Amino acid sequence: MSDLIAFQVQLGYLFKDIGLLQLALTHPSVAHEHGTALQHNQRLEFLGDAVLQLVLTRELYEQFPSVGEGPLTKARAHLVNRRSLAEQGRRLGIGEHLAVSWGEELSGGRRRPSALADAYEALLGAVFLDGGFAAAREFILRQFRGLLGNLQVIPILANPKGELQEMLQSKSSEPPQYRLESVTGPDHDRLFKCAVHHQGVELARGEGKSKKEAESSAALAALEQLRQKPVGPEPGPPSHAASQLGIPDAVEEP
Fold first, then answer.
1. Pick from 87, 144, 194, 233: most CB atoms within 10 A?
2. List of residues 6+ apart from 99 with CB closer than 8 A
3. Distance (Å) of CA 166 to CA 78, 94, 163, 243
4. Which residues are catalytic?
């Protein structure tokens, strides 16, 4: 196991029970490789997901007192989608400390978004068990402070691609174009990356578990940026900034 003392300093939380942290950083592939009943982080992931949902639900409830259940649910989904959680895990450097099997290591498993998202939720579960709800809440809000602070209005988009096309066509008859940039990962855990262009300019990029989800993610990211600047091509390099809110697992009706 890597240097967990330095990692705890980086997290801003020191565990009383270091075994909980080690468990949170144990990928299921380790147990599968050894063929034993070795514990791994899936149970902690289950717990951490519930803690995260509760903390963010309360914050949204208090931050938007006049907003109903439906839009609040959508806003929470924007905050805790798998892409967002993987980014949180990547930012904390969880992958460097993740215990994975040899096969998982060879296939780049410690950098895989799904592994990072799962380990991040497991880490939240470990903090909750180690320090209680108050400690977990403080830890989570520190991680999500930027996202919550930038959430000035509740997103209610059910069809980001349609909304983006409508916004762009109010200024130009040319529709947005989506390009598949890459497909990575094994067959059971593919990651699609797409870019959306308009009038020769890249507006934004997005990723997801399917091409459709990646396009929706790119559309939502573009909408976030276009709300902050005029619609239409601008000189200079294309922007690759992604939406800070991400997207829910399913944002379009089939």
1. 194
2. 1, 22, 25, 26, 27, 30
3. 21, 40, 5, 19
4. 49, 121
- Residues contacting residue 36 through CB under 8 Å, at least 6 positions apart: none
User: What is the value of pTM for the model shown?
Assistant: 0.60
Which tokens is 173 given?
């008859």
Q: What is the token pair recorded at 237?
A: 């390099």
Helix (H) and strand (E) counts in the chain: 11, 3
**How confident is the model at residue 24, as a pLDDT?**
95
The 10s digit of each residue's pLDDT in 138-196 is 999 998 887 776 665 555 455 788 888 888 887 788 899 999 999 998 887 788 999 99
Residue with tokens 């147990």: 31
SS3 content of the chain, % helix, strand, coil (to 5): 55, 10, 35
Nearest CA to 77 out of 243, 254, 189 is that of 243
Longest dimension (CA), the chain: 61
Q: Helix 113-150 vs helix 42-63: angle between axes, to the nearest 10 degrees?
A: 10
Alpha-carbon torsion (60, 64, 66, 68), positive or negative: negative
